[in-house]
Specification:
The chain contains four helices and twelve strands. The chain is α/β, with parallel strands linked by helices.
Length: 183
């Protein structure tokens, strides 16, 4: 059995009837195509981060509107990136201007660690660096769902998954939420 982790695809990479068939994949998404079965593992939160020296140079970021004056290291394409931000029941909008755009979140993290600007990353991906003081979280109560708000296990619409796929699904459902809960 193979397992594929996908992030930004219009359709999950599950194929029927070929040698490279995938029984299950993990996907970060806000919505799911109709031709697959998706089981939610947990919610994801995307927050804003920068390096400590960047924050010293740039100054504090106290409101979502302050983000609009920062150099943005964007996981989205475009000259302007509109974001809807959430904090409890409150919402705010910001339109950010990217200095760098990439779908590679590791690259964006490296740019932030080099004090190139502010980036939007999933909290599970950054927690160790925040705890070590290498990265600073800006506006910790505010988050964005634009990159996908859920971690999903995606399978073909079989009524009964093969035993190995069901074992993987059961393991992921039991372990992943706890692993990501501390983030």
């Amino acid at each position: 059995m193979g397992c594929v982790i996908t992030r930004k695809c219009s359709r999950p990479r599950l194929r029927r009837g070929n040698q490279d068939e995938r029984s299950a994949s993990i996907k970060v998404a806000s919505s799911v195509p109709d031709d697959v079965v998706a089981r939610e593992l947990c919610e994801l939160r995307w927050h804003f981060y920068c390096g400590p020296r960047f924050l010293e140079t740039f100054g504090p970021c106290e409101t979502p509107a302050d983000l609009e004056r920062t150099p943005f290291l964007s996981p989205h394409e475009g000259r302007k990136v509109p974001l809807e931000l959430f904090c409890g029941t409150a919402t705010a909008s910001a339109v950010l201007t990217p200095r760098v755009s990439s779908e590679n979140i590791r690259f964006l993290l490296d740019c932030a660690l080099e004090d190139m600007g502010v980036t939007l990353l999933p909290s599970y991906f950054t927690q160790d660096m925040v705890e070590a003081g290498r990265l600073v979280q800006l506006l910790p109560q505010w988050y964005s769902n634009k990159n996908g708000s859920k971690l999903l296990i995606v399978t073909l619409p079989n009524r009964y998954p093969i035993p190995a796929a069901q074992a993987l699904i059961d393991l992921l459902r039991a372990e992943v939420p706890g692993l990501l809960a501390r983030a």
